[in-house]
From TrEMBL:
Name of this protein: adenosine deaminase
Key word Protein transport present: no
Taxonomic path: Bacteria, Bacillati, Actinomycetota, Coriobacteriia, Coriobacteriales
Pfam families xrefs: A_deaminase (PF00962)
Keywords: Hydrolase, Metal-binding, Zinc
Length: 332
């Protein structure tokens, strides 16, 4: 089954800092945490109540990524971890606007992330891993956030095809409605930036409807589409792919147990589904682990696992040659 766990379309860079890398960055910042203490701060508690509590685990990682050196180190360590796990392709995402507290510009932040990626490949020229970044705008209110989000979209425009493949909307979905960001993503569409939107996770199918109206080509999570038949029909008509993240959904209490995760219902509804990690460190997971959970508890078989992996290959935001290579690899 792990041979199908090759493509991760929904993985947050700041939620996936390997703990040893975090320990080193924390020590350099004068924060002396043991690995156990770091694990407690950076991984979701066993009794997480909701998405808002889940998002609290990002507080320390974001502090460690406020310098070019820190961002570069995180990106390099992240790529090293993906490679060690046999990932073939990933689209790591992060919000450059969340990393400006120490005065860095969003362009400097992205350049640091690209440099960290380049550092990994310079040291590992035989790696088969391919990656490209998705830049996240963040949910919230206020003129400063609006300005930052607009800058993030402009940055995605400037670096599209140069290490960036798309934009995203992330953050507290239940608190800040997807519809509120319509003008931002109208601008993304006008500038030909493809995008995914977190929707149908903390908020219900109305959030997915809004994301579709905004023009999202993929939906981050989207599992609550099952609550509205018309949303299912809209997703199918628009050929929009769902980036589902089972462990994360359990931790945010969308589902009470893995046995109740609706993989079969999503597939039976004819939706295009992919399997992803969301946050490898925060959720303490890997892509192989996600597939293994679904195999053990949700009846996932090898043929369906291969179908899900091929869905991911077809849904990458990269160019058609990348898609063709991934599909050919999966069909060997």
């Amino acid at each position: 089954m792990s041979s199908c766990a090759l493509i991760d379309l929904h993985v947050h860079l700041d939620g996936s800092i390997p703990l040893p890398a975090a320990a080193q960055l924390a020590a350099e910042a004068g924060l002396n945490f043991s690995l156990d203490e770091l694990q407690e701060k950076m991984q979701v508690p066993a009794h997480c109540q909701d998405l808002n509590q889940y998002l609290a685990t990002f507080e320390l990682p974001l502090k460690l990524m406020q310098s070019e050196q820190g961002i570069r180190a995180v990106a390099k360590a992240f790529h090293k971890q993906l490679d060690a796990e046999g990932i073939l392709y990933a689209e790591p995402r992060f919000a450059p606007g969340s990393l400006t507290a120490e005065g860095l510009s969003q362009q400097e932040i992205l350049e640091a992330a690209l440099a960290g990626r380049a550092d990994f490949f310079a040291e590992n020229p035989q790696s088969e891993l391919h990656t490209a970044y998705i830049l996240c705008a963040m949910r919230g209110t206020g003129e400063e956030l609006k300005r930052k989000n607009e800058q993030s979209i402009d940055l995605a425009v400037a670096y599209l095809g140069k290490g960036v493949v798309a934009a995203d909307l992330a953050g507290a979905e239940a608190l800040f409605a997807t519809e509120n960001f319509s003008s931002l993503f109208a601008e993304a569409q006008r500038k030909d930036v493809p995008f995914t939107i977190h929707a149908g996770e903390a908020a219900g199918p109305e959030s997915i409807k809004a994301a579709l109206r905004l023009g999202a080509q993929r939906i981050g999570h989207g599992v609550r589409s099952l609550e509205d038949v018309s949303v299912i029909q809209d997703l199918k008509a628009a050929n929009v792919t769902l980036e589902i993240c089972p462990t994360s959904n359990l931790q945010t209490r969308i589902f009470e147990s893995i046995e109740r995760f609706p993989l079969e219902q999503l597939l039976d509804a004819g939706l295009t589904v992919t399997i992803n990690t969301d946050n490898m460190t925060a959720s303490n997971t890997t892509l192989s682990h996600e597939f293994e959970l679904l195999q053990q508890y949700c009846g996932l078989d090898k043929n369906t696992a291969r179908e899900l992996a091929e869905n991911a290959a077809r849904a990458v935001f990269s160019d058609s040659s990348e898609k063709d290579c991934l599909l050919a690899y999966l069909r060997q």
